[in-house]
Design a protein that fits this description.
Order of helices and strands: EEEEEEEEEHEEHEHHHHHHHHH
Number of helices: 11
Shape: elongated
Strand content: 15-25%
Largest sheet: 6 strands, mixed
Helix content: 25-40%
Oligomer: single chain
């Protein structure tokens, strides 16, 4: 059975998707602590403000933001304080007034002017598995990716305004596609994209090693076997892998196996023994011991949550 890859990690489940229409001047500060949010600018211009600095966005660009710190979107870097988005997608003015009723207009549409110049789609992932947690942990707190998929955004723009049977599932899958396209573009963009395991590494040896570990996490890998496969000494492989990915190969493998195992625990039909075998542990006991050491709870406790 093929193992899930990095891009199978974050998966939208009944995600919060909203079309936002704004007329300048405007600013939106986001402090909702959502696991991961993608903001696709459909038309007009905007500025993303956060740890990425002040980055100008054009139509087609996508902002990815994760839950490590607040960020803001605005018509200009010096735009006056406007809306604040808090936990549960609450929306208030800078003075605390509730803006939600007056700014709603149409199906999944919100903003200060229904005919505004700047239009974007905001997709918020409400949860993520451990594989997704590993992936998003490689991302900056917020990053703007230029025009990752020109063909996808018009489809997303059309679907977000529809109110049809199964529309939530359609939007979830489109949001998944948007995230994958954006991650591909970001991770191929060069030195600024850390966390090489998200996509093909510029180092082909590291890339092939990561592919092998992802494809067969259950295999009895050793550093010697990986080095022999790569055609390098153990020390040379460890050095190159660690420089690019941030951890040695065997540490990376252990983290990957346990992340896969944590997500497989969501399936009540899988026994602990079956999960242990699938992710490369010789027994449920050895899997449980490693799992508790990494996550602080037993597999049973994790599953019960």
């Amino acid at each position: 059975m093929e193992s899930p890859g990095w891009f199978d990690g974050p998966r939208a489940r009944d995600a919060f998707v909203l079309r936002v229409v704004m007329e300048p001047p405007w600013s939106i500060r986001v402090v909702d602590e959502a696991p991961l949010t993608a903001v696709a600018l459909l038309s007009g211009t905007a500025w993303a403000l956060g740890s990425c600095g002040a980055v100008a966005m054009s139509a087609g660009d996508v902002l990815l933001a994760r839950d490590t710190e607040p960020y803001a979107l605005a018509s200009a870097p010096d735009a006056p304080p406007g809306a604040v988005i808090g936990a549960g997608q609450s929306c208030s003015a800078a003075d605390g007034r509730d803006l939600s009723p007056g700014w709603r207009s149409g199906v999944r549409t919100w903003g200060n002017d229904p005919a505004g110049r700047d239009v974007m789609v905001v997709g918020t992932f409400r949860s993520r598995g451990e594989v997704g947690r590993l992936l998003t942990g490689t991302l900056p707190a917020n990053v703007v990716v230029p025009d990752p998929d020109p063909a996808l955004l018009p489809l997303l723009a059309r679907e977000v305004e529809r109110d049809a049977e199964g529309q939530s599932a359609v939007l979830d899958r489109l949001l998944d596609l948007l995230l994958i396209a954006t991650l591909r573009q970001w991770s191929a963009s060069g030195p600024g994209a850390s966390g090489a395991a998200v996509a093909p590494s510029p180092d082909p040896v590291v890339h092939r090693t990561v592919q092998a570990l992802h494809a067969e996490p259950q295999a009895p890998w050793t550093l010697e076997a990986l080095a022999r496969r790569a055609g390098l000494s153990r020390s040379a492989l460890t050095r190159r892998f660690t420089q690019r990915v941030g951890t040695p190969p065997m540490t990376y493998l252990a983290n990957w196996r346990l992340a896969l195992g944590a997500d497989l625990l969501d399936d009540p039909g899988l026994t602990l023994a079956a999960i242990a075998r699938r992710v490369g542990y010789g027994s449920p006991f050895s899997f449980s011991a490693a799992f508790k050491k990494r996550y602080g709870v037993s597999p049973q406790e994790h599953r019960s949550r």
